[in-house]
Amino acid sequence: MTETEAIAWLQAQLHVSRETLEALEAFVAFLKREAESQNLISASTLDHIWSRHIVDSAQLLMFANNSAPQSNWLDLGSGAGFPGLVIALLTNHHVTLVESRARRIDYLQRAVEMLDLTHRVKVAGVTLERLETAPFSVISARAFAPLPKLFDLAARFATNNTLWLLPKGRNAKAEWESAQALWDGNFQVMDSVTDQEAGILVGTLLGKRKNRTIVETQGQEE
């Protein structure tokens, strides 16, 4: 997908307005300036931000219920703002960006102010372990942690109805199959529009499986 194709995809699939495209353009320009002084994204993707990062983030909205404008969205390990800031620019969701690295926190706070999103976007500048427990409608995480660890850290922010949107690259299916030994949930692996070999885990988490110990009683009498 070229940069031109990425912008066309946003307009055709998500009906992104000219005004919102201008906001995304301002964000991309801001990111490129900041990337000169800190390693926000891979240098190899600087010339492909629209396809590798903007659309890669925006495609999550194809699986979300965007008819609920007051939904609370939790984005784990927001880093350069993907997908959380893109989601905030494209929707009316209230978004909490979780980021613990000092320079990234400062960058995100300035980005939120520059994009005039302070009324809907909160930068939680702490580790996830220190974030106050609260229920969220949607939880997203892009390259945050392996699935079992991600669930261990974030399950307390979810209900059985919370939608998890987890871009997991080419290991999406294998990660979910492995995680099912410990966790119960209903997840599907959806195709990514930016990488035909990558997958996005979409679904709900029901909780941790209980360990069952089978006690052998052969030869014992009541």
Poorly predicted residue ranges: 212-222
Mean pLDDT across every amino acid position: 91
Secondary structure tally: strands: 7
Structural class: alpha/beta
Percent of residues in helices: 25-40%
What's the Cα radius of gyration?
Answer: 19 Å
Q: Identify the quaternary structure here.
A: single chain
The major β-sheet equals: 7 strands, mixed
Sheet with the most strands: spatial strand order: 3-2-1-4-5-7-6
Number of helices: 7
The share of residues in extended strands comes to: 15-25%
Provide key terms for this protein.
33% helix; 7-stranded mixed sheet; 222 residues
Q: How is the secondary structure organized here?
A:
Blueprint: H1 3-13, H2 18-34, H3 49-58, E1 72-76, H4 84-90, E2 94-98, H5 102-114, E3 121-124, E4 138-141, H6 147-154, E5 163-167, H7 172-179, E6 183-191, E7 199-208
Parallel strand pairs: 1-2, 1-4, 2-3, 4-5
Antiparallel strand pairs: 5-7, 6-7
Helix pairs in contact: 1-3
